[in-house]
Amino acid sequence: MESSTTKPKESPSTYDNYRQWKNWSKDRSVEKWFIEYFEGEIRQAGLTEAKSLLEVGFGNGDFMRWALSQGKQITGTEIIPELVERGRESGLDVYLYNIADMEIDDGPLAGKRYDGIILFDVIEHLTAKDGMLALKRLAGLLNPGGRIVLRFPNGDSPLSVPIQNGDHTHRNAIAKSKLVQMCLGTGLTVLSYRNAQRIAARKSTAWFKWILFRLRDLTEIVVGYLFFNQRRPLDPVATAVLGKAD
């Protein structure tokens, strides 16, 4: 009698069903509030005149589509094959590539240089060690005067806890002091660390949002000087801008 063997089931990938969980639709257009947000982040990072951009972890491609609408040249990388396939189907210049994998070379990025490198909601998915390796590699892809823009749950704020703990793929909580530490030895320095760009999604509630934002500012000042003798950003999400160290 022949013995039968049962093929073991493959272990689920960390990012299986990630697109569905994020509710990223295939044909979604760039929403108006995204446009306002992207414009603000790029302006504050000093990249308004940047011509060549790289987005690491382009996700649903919203930022890439906005950048193209502004006449910029932009390339994207992702580690999720489904997102790369969808990006290529929509005409984006995207590649399957893990910037933190030191076992591979620069691949599609070999010999390329960029005015700006964007990582929205990416660095928190890497361990501190992998994040440092990724930053060192990205430093070598910057043009002179180029900037790296990072957005992540604000480790300086207790209000970031639901975001940081709300995604099982998050590996690293990042505060300003840790980011400064991570940049040591990478050739990069932290130029700014602030609240992510605030926007009022609807004009009808813009006045109310303005009041809320001013209350947030006041809270930051009071709490900051009560506990740290300086103001600290307390919004749930932070944006940091990195540049080449002198």
Beta strand %: 15-25%
* Largest beta sheet: strand ordering: 3-2-1-4-5-7-6
The figure for the number of domains is: 1
CATH architecture: 3-Layer(aba) Sandwich
Note the run of SSEs as H and E: HHEHEHEEHEHHEHE
CATH H-level superfamily: Vaccinia Virus protein VP39
Pfam family, one: Methyltransf_23
Keywords: Methyltransferase, Transferase
GO biological process, one term: methylation
Protein name: Class I SAM-dependent methyltransferase
List keywords for this structure.
seven-stranded mixed sheet; 246 residues; 8 helices; alpha/beta
Question: How do you describe this structure in short?
Answer:
It is built from eight helices and seven strands.
Explain what this protein looks like in three dimensions.
- The protein is an alpha/beta fold and 246 residues long.
- The chain has a single domain (27-202, 233-244), classed as Rossmann fold, CATH 3.40.50.
- It has helices spanning 18-22, 32-44, 62-69, 81-89, 128-139, 161-164, 176-183, 206-227; strands at residues 52-56, 73-78, 94-96, 114-120, 142-153, 188-195, 237-244.
- Strands 3-2-1-4-5-7-6 form a seven-stranded mixed β-sheet, with helices on both faces.
- β2, α4 and β3 form a beta-alpha-beta unit.
- It is globular.
List the helices and strands and how they pair.
Layout: H1 18-22, H2 32-44, E1 52-56, H3 62-69, E2 73-78, H4 81-89, E3 94-96, E4 114-120, H5 128-139, E5 142-153, H6 161-164, H7 176-183, E6 188-195, H8 206-227, E7 237-244
Parallel strand pairs: 1-2, 1-4, 2-3, 4-5
Antiparallel strand pairs: 5-7, 6-7
